[in-house]
Design goal:
heterotrimer; A alpha/beta (589); B mainly alpha (440); C mainly alpha (230); A: alpha/beta; FAD/NAD(P)-binding domain; 6-stranded antiparallel sheet; 12 helices; globular; B: mainly alpha; Cytochrome Bc1 Complex, Chain D, domain 2; 3 domains; two-stranded antiparallel sheet
């Protein structure tokens, strides 16, 4: 069975952060909008309500709010000559599904990239010489600048009620903030969260070593907040159930807490759940999209939904998958370097050192998602790439985000993972460990990309997307550099013992342990249709009525958690659509 | 003896005549209180706005039903009263009503056929509605509301309340003179007084009832006016006097809670959520401020806000909850396990999001019905233009036994600066299964 | 012979807990505990008798009862595992189970077994028990604790050379044992919230703003999702 529904002005694929932002901004313009969400509907009550969501097994371990690989997954290989295998269960990263998307289950760290991350290739070439860039590294400039995006970061941060401390307001360095950050036009909307014991200890040690500690910018509200849509946040109560959970307390910025009830008041906006978009339909000449086709799970039929404007607002992986399935942009070919769709998939390079203190009570269950202290003294704009032998940077940080016991209790090196000694270990060390982490850039490479798998298919019969990705020496050198800096700090903090976990030379990508849900690239933005999939306004080069939001636009990964940039780019694109595109629909570049 | 019998007989005859007169003599209908020109026309939107002020929708629209088609079951102390269809349908609605008919319903509580309306219709208050507002409303119902053919359920109260003629006697006692004369020279206060006493009919719930179940005060000058009443078993808190729910509030605080169902101190609950949903969120800022200014003026300007003792020193309750000692009593332990997430150890919650429990009129009400219902079933704020979020407190009925709810309620009623009587498990048992959030 | 611990869960629970007085005053978990069927009378939903005996014995070594803190048996981890295997987890309800299955693929690319977790348990227990009979002189449940530990160590090191489809058996067993130990009691394990009490984890309370930054022991006992207190 199949049906065709009446045409809409706009169809939005996915109702997470970017779909909600674009939804409300375009709804204000009076456009007739339909958002299609593949997962279920979700609201704070009943879906995140206390006490039901405080269930580590269901949500932290069995991934209750995440996509089910049975319905949606990818295949993975680490090199062009390896046979990709399907990701049969979740591990390395956790895409969400349902209304709110990953915006419900993130921890809330909300950063702005460093100014030089937007023009990384030019920055390296100008400052260190083009030969600093390894032959297989395919980093590119974004085509936008920190100055251009500043108002949109500001808008996103005030919409989301971010708690933090500015370090640079219009060029003036503010004590207590990040002195290395790009200039911002004003302080964060809310003051920083209170800090846990581990963060205080790290901050004191870092300051004593001459570094510049500052509070992590957090989407966990430190006080009540009302945003531009009249939506409200309550103060975070440090419940210890942030990442992987919906917030019980209206405290974590999410589409639910910041946008959706305001958006639902617009009669010209509607949304459908359990409606997975299967492909974007293109006009006969391929120059525009005519709408989308989706699977209506309730009616058990395919629906053709015509629309004048198609917004791809799904998770990065799914946006790229839809582009590959629909013929939006030429698929990237790693052997020739030609093609754009799927190009420059990148991830995040992380590592950390755990410190054990018999006599300190860290009370890790008393945690918010993003409170904590960081330093940016080794950020990407502070490193001499030529001298250090790598391109990249990292923030270094402490801050316990939960004390959930199944997800893992840190134990000193040498403790067995089962048996009497393990049991003795958890009794002795639960609540007595903290960690200092490195959250670093991951650059893009010729053979790290996304395309369609030749073998495996999804329940709709579509080819799965194939990820080809591995760690590269440049990024491993970066993380080893950070290790040396973190271990210096750890030693200065005089723990009873400590242990480190960083990728070392020869490390291969492992899909099994959770690392981070910061998948980027594949639908990269840029200034040249031959090297990027979308223009600087996130408009598809080849189909001017298709806009592709999200972290797929990053030409390589920044050293920060991506949501701040994802949110700012969504407002940036919305602004371009409203003020430039709608009056005269056309390629904006 | 004969004289006595004659006197008795005469009294009986007089009584019968009076009774017949009450039943059969046509009711005198109150005329217009202001003479308006025959061709007077309301400005665009005036009628709908007056309807919002009077909140006709709340009672005359059934849950999920067509607007103004009536048939909403209103639980009253006398029994269930079904609201009437006030759409302009000629047969089942008010399509054939004249302006005078409409005025008589609002001012005198009588239908065109002379049937007495039960005082679920607040004509005691609507008698003060201006002729302009009344005519605008009439114009709105006749011209802007879609006619709906719907025969509503017949209201059938038990004897003696089914003898509607008795209401005529009651009205002699219960009704004040028609028309509105402000007691203030200040135009803002006068406007606030008009809105509150007249179309807003705040007194219908917030004023105690006297021995004949009439509002014990209809004007601001009556000390009983807005001194606290009851609605659907919940306390409609006093808005003046030592227990005033708004003592220490600013006019802006009042305007905010009426316009958005929430303010820095409290959130609307129970039936008042419906008032915000259907009425007050549509009231202009100026009118909300007028109401706020008027209501604040009824309160002692020097009275401290409830629950704000000395901010510098943590209260005993705060210290107890902060220590989290394993030996703590059941009440505070339940507070930490169920309430502290939002309302916090200081009982202050968070501005506009989590209501204060310290000094909260629902928490400390003499009748704990509202508090128990809140714990059992939770509550959801209506979406309003200024504050669209349907913030919701989940119910804890499934997690807490009757004894636990009683221990918890008793604790919060005596925590911080609160000083209200404890709650018993049987109070909780009586309500379990009966309550649900008002706005869904 | 019935092991002593099967009859003694409540006494051990009380005896093994420091704050008995606090528990007694807030007695809900004790009531809940009393309503539980003793483990030797529990009728497994998924596991057969031999499998149940294996799970009882294996989890008792993965988290033994000796020393401080409860073991897998007092916390009723076997019940948790049985219920998990009988439900969507055991049936791989969320997993991508389309072929082809390259069971010899590099482990970094993720588990590629065509078997569901419940099938992995079923076949894994049988295969490992057979290995125990051949190498240790008896099925696992019949070995003494020392031999059981040796057999599990061998299993953890891949010594029994189970077929590649069962590669995950050991890691599943350890992971699910720890899950049963620490998950909310509504899933059948962590009886009386003993595992939470042991490590000082307050369970499902989920609000601690006033505890942020306090280098101080948090002593208030846990609460579970059902609202029971310990």
């Amino acid at each position: 069975m199949a049906r065709t529904d009446p045409k809409r002005d706009v169809v939005i694929v996915g109702l997470g952060w970017t779909g909600s932002i674009m939804g409300i901004e375009l709804a204000k313009e009076g456009l007739d909008i339909l958002a299609l969400e593949r997962g279920p509907d979700r609201s704070t009550v009943p879906d995140f309500q206390y006490p039901n969501v405080i269930d580590e097994l269901k949500y932290g371990i069995r991934f209750g709010f995440m996509q089910k690989p049975r319905n949606s997954t990818i295949t993975v290989r680490r090199s062009l000559d390896e046979v990709a295998q399907p990701m049969r269960r979740l591990g390395s990263f956790l895409p969400g599904d349902g209304v709110g998307g990953a915006g419900i289950h993130w921890n809330g760290q909300t950063w702005r990239p460093m100014a030089n991350e937007y023009n990384l290739r030019s920055y390296v070439e100008e400052n260190f010489g083009a030969d600093t860039i390894p032959e297989d590294m395919t980093i590119q400039d974004w085509g936008v600048t920190a100055e251009e995006l500043e108002p949109y970061y500001d808008r996103f941060e005030y919409m989301a009620g971010i708690s933090g401390q500015a370090g640079n307001i219009n060029g003036e360095i503010i004590a207590g903030g990040n002195p290395f950050e790009a200039p911002r036009s004003r302080d964060y909307p809310l003051p920083p969260l209170p800090q846990q014991v581990d963060s205080q200890m790290f901050g004191e040690a870092a300051a004593s070593m001459g570094y510049h500690p500052f509070p992590r910018p957090a989407a966990n509200a430190s006080a009540a907040w009302t945003n531009e849509y009249g939506m409200q946040l309550g103060p975070c109560n440090f419940c210890g159930f942030c990442e992987r959970y919906g917030c019980i307390n209206y405290s974590k910025a999410s589409p639910q807490t910041c946008i959706l009830d305001a958006l639902k008041r617009y009669d010209n906006f509607s949304y459908r759940v359990n409606s997975e978009v299967l492909r974007v339909n293109l006009a006969a000449d391929g120059r525009t999209a005519t709408g989308v086709t989706y699977w209506d799970d309730e009616a058990q039929e395919e629906v053709t939904q015509p629309a004048d404007l198609v917004i791809l607002a799904a998770y990065q992986l799914h946006n790229v998958h839809l582009m590959l399935l629909s013929g939006i942009g030429e698929p990237y070919n790693p052997r020739t370097g030609e093609g754009v769709t799927g190009k420059n998939y990148a991830y995040q390079m992380t590592g950390g050192t755990t410190l054990f203190y018999r006599d300190v009570e860290f009370n890790p269950f008393a945690a918010s998602g993003s409170s904590g202290i960081s330093i940016d003294d080794f950020a990407i704009n502070q490193i001499d790439f030529a001298a250090e032998g790598f391109i990249g940077g990292s923030y270094i940080t402490a801050g316990l985000s939960n004390g959930q016991p199944i997800r893992g209790i840190s134990l000193p090196a040498g403790t067995p993972s089962w048996g009497a000694e393990w049991k003795a270990g958890i009794g002795e060390w639960y609540g007595h460990a903290m960690s200092i982490g490195s959250h670093g850039s991951n650059l893009s490479y010729r053979d790290c990309y996304l395309d369609l798998d030749p073998t495996y298919t999804d329940p709709h019969g579509r080819p799965l997307m194939r990820m080809t990705f591995d760690w590269k020496p440049n990024d491993i050198r970066m993380t080893q550099f950070m290790r040396s800096k973190i271990e210096e700090i750890a030693q200065a903090m005089e723990p009873d013992s400590w242990r480190s976990g960083y990728k070392s030379e020869g490390a291969r990508y492992d899909i099994r342990p959770y690392q981070t849900t910061h998948n980027v690239g594949g639908a990269i933005m840029g200034t040249d249709p031959n090297t990027s999939a979308v223009n600087r306004y996130l408009q598809a080069w080849g189909q001017h009525n298709v806009f592709v939001l999200g972290a797929g636009a990053f030409p390589q990964n920044i050293q920060y958690n991506p949501t701040g940039a994802v949110g700012a780019l969504a407002y940036w694109a919305a602004d371009a659509i409203i003020n430039d595109y709608l009056p005269d629909p056309r390629p904006l570049v | 003896m004969r004289i006595f019998l004659k006197t008795i007989a005469a009294l009986v005859v007089i009584g019968i005549l009076v009774l017949l007169a009450i039943i059969y003599v046509p009711v005198q209908r109150t005329p217009a209180q202001t003479a308006l020109a025959d061709d007077w026309q309301p400005e665009d939107g005036h009628g709908e706005y007056a309807m919002r002020l009077a909140d006709c929708m709340a009672c005359h629209t059934a849950e999920g039903g067509e607007p103004f088609a009536g048939n909403r079951a209103i639980e009253s102390p006398l029994g269930t009263i079904y609201s009437t269809n006030i759409t302009p349908d000629p047969e089942t609605g008010i399509g054939n009503w004249t302006l005078a008919d409409f005025r008589a319903a609002l001012y005198d509580g009588v239908r065109p056929d002379g049937t007495q309306l039960y005082p679920a219709m607040p004509y005691a208050n609507f008698r003060q509605v201006s002729e302009e507002d009344l005519r605008a409303m009439y114009d709105y119902f006749m011209n802007d509301v879609e006619p709906v053919r719907l025969q509503v359920e017949e209201t059938a109260l038990a004897f003696p309340f089914n003898q509607r003629w008795g209401l005529r006697l009651w009205k002699w006692v219960a009704l004040d003179d028609p028309g509105f004369t402000p007691q203030y020279d200040d135009p803002v206060l006068a406007r606030g007084e008009y809105l509150t006493e007249g179309p807003g009919h705040c007194s219908a719930c917030h004023t105690p009832r006297n021995t004949v179940m009439a509002q014990a005060g209809l004007r601001a000058s009556d000390p009983e006016f807005l001194a606290g009443g009851e609605i659907a078993g919940w306390t409609a808190p006093p808005l003046r006097g030592p227990q005033s729910a708004i003592r220490g509030w600013s006019a802006e605080d009042v305007a905010m809670i009426l316009g958005t169902a929430r303010n820095a101190h409290a959130a609307l609950n129970g039936e008042m959520q419906l008032v915000a949903r259907d009425s007050t969120q549509f009231v202009t800022d100026d009118d909300l401020m007028a109401i706020g200014t008027f209501l604040v003026g009824l309160n002692d300007p020097d009275a401290p806000r409830a629950g704000t003792s000395d901010d510098a020193e943590p209260t005993q309750t705060e210290q107890l909850l902060t220590a989290a000692d394993p030996d703590m009593a059941l009440g505070p332990r339940l507070y930490l396990d169920n309430c502290n997430a939002c309302h916090f150890v200081n009982g202050r919650g968070a501005d506009e999001v989590f209501p204060e429990l310290d000094g909260n009129s629902l928490v400390t009400a003499e009748r704990p019905t509202g508090l128990i219902a809140m714990i059992l079933a939770g509550s959801q704020l209506p979406s309003t233009e200024l504050r669209p979020y349907r913030l919701q407190m989940p119910g804890f009925g499934e997690r807490l036994s009757d004894d636990e709810v009683a221990a918890l309620a008793s604790f919060v009623r005596s925590a911080w600066s609160n000083d209200a009587a404890p709650v018993s498990a049987s109070d909780v048992a009586d309500l379990r299964g009966e309550v649900q959030p008002a706005v869904r | 012979m019935t092991p002593r611990f099967l009859h003694a869960t409540r006494r051990r629970f009380l005896g093994g807990t420091a704050s008995v007085a606090a528990l007694a005053s807030l007695s809900m978990p004790l009531q809940a505990q009393e309503n539980l069927v003793p483990l030797d009378e529990y009728e497994p939903t998924f596991l057969n008798a031999a499998e149940w005996a294996f799970i009882m014995a294996a989890t008792a070594r993965i988290i033994p009862s000796d020393g401080d803190g409860p073991g897998a048996i007092e916390t009723r981890v076997p019940v948790f595992i049985d219920r998990q295997l009988a439900g969507p987890f055991g049936a791989a309800a969320d997993l991508y189970m389309e072929g082809p299955f390259d069971v010899d693929a590099d482990p970094n690319l993720g588990i590629q077994s065509p078997l569901t977790p419940s099938e992995i348990y079923r076949e894994g227990i049988a295969a490992f028990d057979a290995w125990c009979v051949d190498n240790q002189g008896g099925s696992f449940a019949d070995l003494d604790a020392q031999a059981q530990d040796a057999a599990l160590t061998a299993l953890s090191q891949g010594e029994p050379q189970l077929r590649p489809e069962l590669l995950e058996f050991w890691s599943l067993l350890v992971q699910n044992t720890k899950e049963g130990y620490f998950a909310d009691p509504m899933y059948g394990g962590n009886a009386g919230m003993q595992a939470w009490l042991y490590i000082g984890y307050p369970g499902a309370r989920a609000n601690y703003l006033e505890w942020v930054g306090r280098n101080e022991e948090y002593r208030l006992g846990p609460v579970n999702i059902a609202g029971e207190r310990a």
